[in-house]
Each structure stands twice: as structure tokens, then as C-alpha cells.
Amino acid sequence: MYRTVSKFNLQNELLDRARLAKQLEDYLGAEKLVKRAIALTRQEGGPEEHTITRYLTRELAGIHVKAGSLKKAENAWKSHLKSLRQIKKNTETEQLEISKTMVQMALFYQSQDLARQAKIRYGQALKIQEPLFSKENPDYVLTLSEYARILCREGKRRKAESLFLEALKLAENILGDWDEYVALVLRRRALAFKGLVNPELLEPYLERAVAILADDSASPHPELSKSLAELADLSLERGYVRRAEKLYVKSYQLSEGVLGSKHKDSVSILTRLARLRRSLRKYEEAESHFRKILTVARQVGNSRSLKVARALRDLGSLLVEKRDYEKAEPFLLEALDIQQSILGRDHVDLARTLIELASLHKSQNNFNLAEVEYKRALKIRGNAPMAVADTLTGLALLHQARKQHAPAEKLLLQALSIKEEAFGPEAPQLVETLNKLGIVYENLLEVDRAIEFYERANVIEIQQHGFYCRLWLDPDESNKT
Questions:
Q1: d(CA 269, CA 260)
Q2: Do 80 and 133 fall within a single domain?
Q3: CA separation for the pair 400, 422 (Å, rounded)
Q4: What's the rounded Cα separation, in Å, for the pair 389 and 378?
Q5: What's the mean pLDDT in 319-343?
Q6: pLDDT tens by residue, 31-82
Q7: The last residue of a domain, from among 215, 237, 264
């Protein structure tokens, strides 16, 4: 006997295959499968036709977003919204579905930095949600919070803060002080003002959000791991490195347990933890993390994707820092090969990989190859001043390694000029370049000029930290300061 497959079952099969294709980054294949499922639904008709079609259209929009086909994604959302508005029954359920679609469109616009379009959609959603706000439908406070985030980005901080307070008061009064929606509003409030105010002022919001979201013994809240990671970010900004590390570990453990190690949020948190541990010189742990990130990148999508290239570069860069040059080189070369095949030979993303390779080859005393790579990176980065300064510095160090101190002096002076223009003459970003120039002048036997640059670096360091950063100065000179 043969089992008959209904069209509905076939649609489910097509959708499952589309999701698999999307996971494998075969977006064109995924798009074709979902469109075929939509066509079958319309052909079949029936009372659930519009419901199933709307659901599939949302899936299609998500595929277009992943593929970077932003116009197609926008059209899919608009088509979905149009079909909802054509429904004759104007029930509360249908109105909320329309408002949710508007919020999804707004989030899509936000992801593309289209603040104006996002603001319009949030405004439309709020008009629908406001009269329907109740204990059963509390999404209004989240929409209000997202709307406030956009106002904050536009520089309307007072208005944004007023809306956040309104959303928080509503949530607390209707849902209670310890409700998850209170935590979600607090988290969005902290995110909105991140980078605009002192991290000390934002930590209490996230700490309270974490306490609320963690107070559920049944299962971890989906936003708990993100809140912990964001609290770690703030701790890192304040210089509380050990606390940040512990928070990242907790955040990753939760994310991995709930979402799995392959989910983008888990990878993002692990990447932050790996970079922090690298900065702490916990190289073995950092290497383990970077290798895991690379394995996930190869498994989740195309084995020669840009995500894989970034993971290869991060791992290779760490190995260069560990002075494990033989292991580092294949990773960096593969990263460069993937980037060139996808982006071309002159894309700006290649410059960082080239600089890592140049640093590696310089350390191996392969000066000619390192010079070629530095110069190629410099050509690519011609329109990015700070990136140019870093590349000039790398090239200067190469000349120093060759005992070519005069060319090194010229390149470092150029790098210093760029940084002075960007940050000012007394910025801490200048210290490293000033000290490198001091070393160059020592090698050129120009002791007075060397002391001049060392002293300038020391003045900046004293302003920042209250101590001298180098010991080349004469002890008597130090005592006078």
C-alpha cells in the first residue's frame, strides 16, 4: 500500500525543507520552497487558507532578511499586513495580530538602521494596542519601550525617558513589581541609554531585570542570558573585569542550555567571553572558545562563509599573540582566501586579516612578505584614518626590525598626526605611538628628542593613572615632576 500525502502535509514538508535550507544559508532554495507552499495553500483554498498563507509569508520575510534581500523582505511584510487588513472581521484578536505585524516590521526597519520607518510602524502599533492594554495583552509597554529607544537614538532623551517611566509605571501598576514585562522594560531602558550615560546609572536597571527574570524556577527566561551579557558589558566598561567574566560565563551557560551552542546569541556571548579572556592572557581558555566558535560556524552554514572567515581570523590572531606562528598561518591564509573569493581583493574587511598576516610574517623574520601585506592593507584602508594609523604603525615596526629607523620615524610621525587630529594632543590613544617614537629616537641616538616624546607620554599617563609609564627618564628628572 502507498501512503497518500495530503497537500497540507506536503506544505509542512516544504516548510521543514525550507528551514533546513535557510539554516544551510541556501536562501534561494528556501525562498522557492516557501513560495511553493504558499501556491499550494492558495490552490487548496478552504477556511484556513488566509491563516496559513500569512504564516508562510512571515517565514518568507525572515528568509529574505537572512539573505540580505531587504526590499523583498519589506514587500513580504507589507503583503502580510495587507492580507490582515482585508479581513472583514474587526475583532480584538485581528487588531492585535495587525499590531504585532507592525512591531515586527518596525524591528526589521530597526535592524536596517531605518529609524524613521521603524518609528512610524511603532506609532501605528501603539494606537491599536493602547485601548487594548490589559493584564492579558501587555505588549503595549514593550512597544512603548521600543518607540522610546528610537527617540533616544534621535537625541530626544527627555521624551524617551518620560516614555520609559510611563511604560514602567503601567507595567508595575497592572502586572506587579515582579512581572517579566517590568524586567523587559528595564532592559530596554538600559539598552537605550548605553553609551550615552555613565554605566553606573544603568547597572541598577539590568540588575533588577536579571533578578526578576531569574526568579522563575520552572525554566530560564529567553531574555535572561542576554540581560546577563549586557550587565557584563557594563561591568567591563567600568573596569570590573573579573565580574564581567563571571557574568559572561553564566550568560553563556544559560544560552547554551536553552538555545544550544549553535544559536547566534550563544555564539555572540562566547565570542565576547573569548575576547575578554584573551585580553586577560588566559590563552588556553580563549583558544578553546575560538575553536568552538569556528566549529559552530562551519557546521551551521557554508564552510566558506564570511562567518567562518571571521572565526578563522580570530583564532589565527590569538595564535599569533601566543607566538604559535606555525599553527596560526593556515587559519589566517584560509580566512584571507575566503574573504577574497566572496568580497574581492580590495574590500575593507581584508585589511585586518592582512595586518594579522603581516604581523605573523614579521615575527618570523619574513620581512619582504610582511611589507607587501602591510602596504596592501594600507592601500585598502585609504579612507579610514584610524585604521591607516594602525597600519602605518605596523609598517614602522617592520622597518625598526630591519634597523631602518629613519623610515620608521616618518611612518610613526604620520600615525601620530592622524591620532592627534582624531583625539586631540593629550588623548590616551597617543601614548603607545609616543613611546614607540621615543624608542626610534633612542636608536637614532637623538636622546633629547627621545626624552621629549617619553615625557609627553608620561604626562598623559599621569593625568590618566597617576604614574609614569616608562623608566627611561633620569631619576632626578622624575623627582622634579
A1: 12
A2: no
A3: 25
A4: 9
A5: 95
A6: 898 888 888 888 877 777 777 777 788 788 888 877 777 788 888 878 878 8
A7: 215
